[in-house]
Structures are given as structure tokens and as C-alpha cells.
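In this supplementary section we document a worked example of the pipeline. Step one takes a protein sequence of length 261 as its only input; no multiple sequence alignment statistics are reported here. Step two produces a three-dimensional model, which step three serialises into C-alpha cells for compact storage. The input and output of this example are shown verbatim.
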Amino acid sequence: MEYQWGNEQFVFEADGYNLQYRLLPHQLNLHGHCDEGDDVTLGKMTFLPPGGRLLVNPTEEEHSARVLVCRIEDEALTGALAKAWENLRANQPPTIDDPDACHSLHRISLEIMYPRASTALMVEGCLRMALASILRWSLSEPNFMIREVVGGSLLDTELARLESFIDEAEDIIPSAHDLAGELGISASHLRRKFRVTTGLTVHEFVMRRKVAQAQNLLLNSTLSMKSIAYRLGFSSPSTFSIAFHRMVGVSPTHFRQSANR
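The serialised model returned by step three reads:
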């Protein structure tokens, strides 16, 4: 689904349990709230119950976004989602920041864009994985302050700082030592914190953001595959293509051609 908004408030009303995952653009500085909630920074994934409303604040510039929208009707799943919503209401709804759920939803979008054998079964399985991850995240999220106090995870500000560092790094793929230096901690300490915070290794996290940048460039620029590969820090077009295919499921060339059909 394509959304467009600008200097007027954008309102999304859910007619069921709705899970939305922003595919593009990768980075978008938006703020909004539910009917009675406080303003929060809206991430890539949002979750609303039946009758819920998401109010996106006006922006100075016109924006558009490509979004995967999942409406869940299965009774067995809606029961779990009702529990997840109760857990989230006391925290910071409607944004969900769980890398496992994001990965599952991204895989659904790829299956829809590039259908293959058993696509329907794969979509259903990925959706169940995403919902299970959201439920687990909602149950553990109230403990986030405890994890930060004991130093077991990265602060939101630290993670955002590293994300910006990765996205702004051209002609290089940052290493754990590079990111640790940005925060002034040891690489081993960063690796432990990264695993607790994101469930990923540093390298996996960096590669996901680089591939997301590649998708944006493939869709919204005329740069060649070679130029994109070197701009993002890959050692060669072939290593770029291998990394892209591993995460997206298709080659960069196929991805661009399919999007332009």
C-alpha cells in the first residue's frame, strides 16, 4: 500500500488487528500517537487493535511510503494479539521495535513481490512468526529499564547513534571495532550488548542496514549495480550481489527489474 501525507494530520483507522511494516523509505522521521496516547517516534512497524486510530503528525515536506499491511482475522491469533496490546498500552504504542518481527514481515513482502512455490504457506508461516515475536517482545519490554540499568543492552539513543553511523558510512562497511569506537566502549562489550538488544550479531545488523540502503538506491536512483556496491562499502559487485541475495532472496538486478515492471 502507498501512503502520502504532508502538512495535514494523517489518520489511519484499523478495522481489525492491523500490523503495518514500512518497506520504503528506510528512514523517515515521523511522530504520532494513538487516540489518547503521547507522541512517540514512529518506527518501521506499527500495531493497532480493532477500532484503533493512529494519528501521524503533520510534516513540513510531502512524504510517501510503501507499506505492507497485514489484517489478522484468525481467532487463535487475535487472542494472542489482544494480550500483546494490553502489554503494549502501558508502554509506548503503537510502534514495535523487534528485529525478528521486522525480518518476518520483510520476508512476507518479498514472497508477495516474487511469488514462488508454496508462497501462501510461507506467508502464513512468516506472519505467525512475526506475531509470536511481537507477543514475546511485548512481554519483555516492561523490563527494558532494568536491562539498561545493569548495562546489558544498548540505550535507544546509543542504538540510534550507531544506525546513523552505519547509514552515513560510505565506501566502507563498519566493523564492530568501528562501532565500539563511536560509543567509546570495547568491541567485546559492544558485541554482548548488541546481541541482548537486537538478537543479532553486529555484522548481521550492519548488513541488514546496508542491504536496506541498497534496496532504496535500486528503486529510487539510476546508479549502476557497481556504483551502489562500492558506495555502500562492498569489496566488489559480486560480494554485494551475494549479500543482497542472501537477505532479500533475489539478485539486485532482479529486484530492480521487478520493481520497474
